[in-house]
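for the writeup, i need someone to sanity check this before i put it in the appendix. the sequnce is what the collaborator sent (i think, or maybe the updated version? ugh). structure was predicted straight from it, no edits. if anything looks off just tell me and ill rerun, i have time this weekend
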Amino acid sequence: MESQNTGEGIKEEEEDPKNTINILIATDIHLGYLETDRERGNDSFVTFEEILEYARDQEVDMVLLGGDLFHINKPSPTTLKKCLETLRKYCIGDNSVYIDVISDPRLVMNNNINFLDPNLNIALPVFTINGNHDDPSGPELVAALDIVSNSGLVNYFGKCTNLNEITLHPLIIQKNETKVAIFGLGYVKDERLVSMIKNNKVKYMKPKDDKDILYILVLHQNRPERGTAKNIAEDSIPSFFNFILWGHEHECRIKPEYNTKQGFYVCQPGSPVATSLCAGEAVQKKLAILKCAKMDIKLEPRNLETVRPFVFENYTVETDAEQEEEEIAHTVDRMIEDSKQQLTGNPRQPKLPLIRLRVENCKKDALKINPIVFGQKYENKVANSNEILLIKNRINRNTNTGVKGEFDGEDQNYIDTCVEDLLKSFYDQAPEDRQLQSFLPSELNESVKRFINQEDRSVFGDIINYKMESIMKHFEETNVKEEDIDLELTKFQTTIAETHGEEFKSFLTDANRTQATNRTLGTMLNIGSDSEDEMDLSSVEAPRPARGRGSRGGRGSRGPRGSRARGKK
């Protein structure tokens, strides 16, 4: 048991259940991750059910999630169905809810608090913010969380509507003599949020009578520095908070870490499902119950029992090594045996493990190992047979370059290098004849991140069409001559860079952008029903609906206050 206290702490024998708010905390569930994978497609749902089952069995007062409930903001009907079924199974019932909300919920969420709705029979309240994977998009700023919230099964709060200035109001939860003010900040692009914090554009509205209140902040942002990408510094968070629930980071660091400068604890539960095969995901997955009693807090962590076993190791092939493939195979066999130690006995836990061996080759020649062929003999022994090996070759470069012992492939520095760094490196080093004059690094960066993080498969076709329209429109307005096209294009790109590409970002978040760019392309190519040279597009695959993030929005009506006392006590 881990105990972290803001004051003298809660001694176990002195705990008063009537004045203790028990909050189960978790984050980054990523429902729907790899849902079409016959082996791993159900992992996120199994662990989500374990989380809610534990919350019900421990009779916690509420569940608090730190974002990314879904893996994408427009999940498949199957994922949405499974999510609603699980929530309905564990959140609806006749058990009493002993907490009350004494603040105005209209300030932080669209819908009423579900357990205060007389038409709903909520036994386990769930509160969540949105993350970067499940954030709202489109002209009406709708995300899957809005649908789940409208069903009455989840309380979705912390949705940011104004990205020029953010004003955060708390949900104040009360249970007899204990009050907890929970501030929720749904995901905001890190660069923008850092700038807003620096310019004092993020305001926290503390209650006027703020005595004897515990303050909790739930956010979903980058915590460590990653290359040139921005991150939210802990020191930029106001010191009046007692506890920070940090989402987005997948490594489990659930033991609260005390910030001596700001005087609060930071808890990073991590993701209960491994969405990448890296060392941080191989750390033991956990959840925890946060106990708040008057002005004291305590955290009780617990290992998750239904997480798929995952073993990650590094292996070095020395310059004089022989029979390296045989040695690597022995290492993988041993890792599979080691993974059995992670089996908990829970019948719902997947048995086939995830195995990741990162091989560093120090030989001059590349290894004659095909990772796909190598993995075929483990097809029924591991869950990721095609991804067991990640081979990187050491490159001994000329010392005049100032670079020694670099690697091609994935090492820790490579993992931590963000998309911005790679694109910037390309633009800085590519020959002039290979420079992409029509695209800015920031535009490609945004597009690549949407393709990877939100599985937006239409984004690249859309940005090409969008840029074609923008450039042609500019050329028409300026009546540019053919010999001045290159110069005018450079000026045009400079203007866009100076305005930080706000118009382009708005275009990406438009849910109807795919249809719009198709119409634009048709106009530019003179494609239409009345065209004499009509083009047959029947063989062209239609682009998939766009996914994306825009500004967030909305406030709704205020629900009645007061606890229910339905069912057993």
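Residues 12-303 form a domain with the Purple Acid Phosphatase; chain A, domain 2 fold (CATH 3.60.21.10). The chain has three domains: 12-303, 310-417, 441-524.
thx in advance!!
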